[in-house]
Sequence to fold (622 residues):
Amino acid sequence: MKSLAKKQNNKLITSIAVAAILLLLPIILSVTGNSYSILVLGFIIIYIIAVSGLDVNFGYCGQISMGHAAYYCIGAYGSVMLHHYFGIPVIITMILASILAAVLGAIVAFPASKLVFHFLSLSTIAFAEIVYTLVLNSPGKITGNAVGMFTDPINIFGYTLRSNTAFYYFGLVVCAVFLLVKWFLVKSKIGRAWIAIRENEDAAEGMGVNVVKYKVMAFAFSAFYTGFAGAMYAHLVNYIGPDTFTMKQSVMFITMMLFGGTGSILGPIIGSMFILLMTESLRVLEQYQMLVFGVILLAVVLAFPGGILGVVKDVIKKIKLKKGGVKNVVRN
Amino acid sequence: MLFQVIVSGFVIGCVYGLIALGYSLIYKASGLMNFAQGDVLTLGCFLGYTFYTLLGLPYWLSLIITAAIAFFFGMGEERFIIRKLQNKNVLTVYVVLATISIQYILQNSIQAIWGPNMLSYPRVFPWNNVTIFGVNIQTESVFCIIMSFILMMLLQVFMNHTKFGTAMRASALDAKAAKACGINPSFATGVTWGIAAALAATAGILLGPIYGVFIMLGQTIGRKGFAAAIMGGYGNVIGAIVGGVLLGLIETMSAAYWSSTYKDMIAYGLLLIFLYVKPTGIFNEKALNR
Fold:
């Protein structure tokens, strides 16, 4: 019992320390003159939300989607267009657009629920390409086509998030809420059903899990997360153009998810941070950025096919083996 | 007008067919999808341009050299990347990600080597047009269609009537049983990937004189090739060709008589409709639950 109390104490101390660092980070960065880094932090938060959504779909329910850029796009354009044409306040449009993304996700997932891996990924790619073509060549130019659209920052009850620092704090709260919801969700009956489907679809069906219903739910939740992230992106940079929503974006999400580790809360956080910081640091290479990115991606896939979290887990296992023998590992 | 539309539909349709053929071969041999196929087409186009225009080799020779290089590229891709990953028993999504990263590497190295500008092929044949039924058609288009059909025919003969082709089909069906018969299944799989890459590169060098040489040439074609493969029945060799030609015709017809901006959407729409309604394709290929 004593050790349990100590463990909980330790956990409390770590979480307080993490929270303090997260809250103080923009202040530290602005004092040291790295204001661009605060924008990068905002992007990291956006990606964490989007990738967490994708992880609900793939990591828990086992359904691949290679077209999540479509929901990112629907969230972004939906929010911007609702604000632009109907004058609805931004924070409400963000939620409405994410709901729209979720509904479309469900509509796509319903007939796709019987498809297996490769063919599911093809259908999601096709959907994403259709959304991209529609945004690029919209009837009556309502999306601004290739020119894109300008928009306003987020406004919460009269307070406008003009600076990147303000956005960072807003994003931190939103991100915490989204991660908490995800945590409760995967621990609930729904999450158990998802995991059952991931492990063995036939067995899940045999146990009375409504496979189609839960697959559609996973897609809808996932699309909601990614859609909201898209809306956040739109109102952070205050401009959207179709180039952001190509298949490259979907591949970016998948890469982040796989590198952090799937089926966990922490995985998408680590993956998003790692991959985004990497692409940011490769920016100095300009036109060779994607080339180097591809080479690194390939090398990492070949060397550590389990993602970063997999490597860390392996290392921890090895250390424990050395320290306490087999018993310790088994107990953990 | 109609006849010219049909011919250009056949040209792009044959290219889709060659790409889809590669997809089918790879899917049968390894149970995988290769997203780099379209960019091998681009590579073939640029290599052919280099041999033919910059080095001044004859067209037929540059075609053969390009196909040979692509063949070894495909074999190497399978041998050093795909096989390594499959031996590690990783999730399929990592293999897919590996082919996507190969796609990035190809696309960006082509840009680094040849530059971002569009290049134009000089004429391949001394005469500009051939007249069929009183209509003038670009010679290269006719050549592209004829060559594609010859290639498909050769592949059929190779797969069904030669010893090595039979060995390839056997190892695709059951690697263990093939091994027991003295076939080397890993070599056969490698050759399959090589043939798929060579087909794509040849499609590139055939398409170059008609569409021009640019970096994004293969990406969309590669992605739409999936639609062709699905339409014919994924994994079916004849289905790939029929699906490709059908897709090319539908796309060109709709671009000519309806709207060219939504041309791409038609291919993806067809892909979705087929996947949802008839995932086994026109030829009812039952490879889906692999």
Observations:
- The mean pLDDT of chain A is 85.
- The CA atoms of residues 215 and 272 of chain A lie 25 Å apart.
- The first strand of chain A starts at residue 149 and ends at 150.
